Amino acid sequence: MRLLLAALLGLTLTLGIALPASAECYADYKAKQDDPLRLHYGVAQISDGACGSNGAAKGELKPRLAAGGWTLLNVLSTFGPDGLGERKASAGEYFLRY
Predict the structure, then answer these.
(1) Phi, psi dihedrals of residue 52, rounded to the nearest 5°
(2) In a domain, 36, yes or no
(3) 26: β partners
């Protein structure tokens, strides 16, 4: 019985170590509203699956922005947490809002 428990514990630890760590991913984008025309630059957190692909990030951000009355114009880039600091001031109130 102890041998079985030890084997299960070892397997659990091995699988836990083998699983990839969840990475944070972000995208910076441009959006607009019409009548009157308003534009904004923003930064949003996106899922890991959308990281590295502007098209996937666009698919994720488009409905979020639409819910707030905005139309996504384009995704400029996707990046990790190391790129947040340099974009925070430019995004202003739209930093991690959507």
Answers:
(1) 90, -5
(2) yes
(3) 45, 79
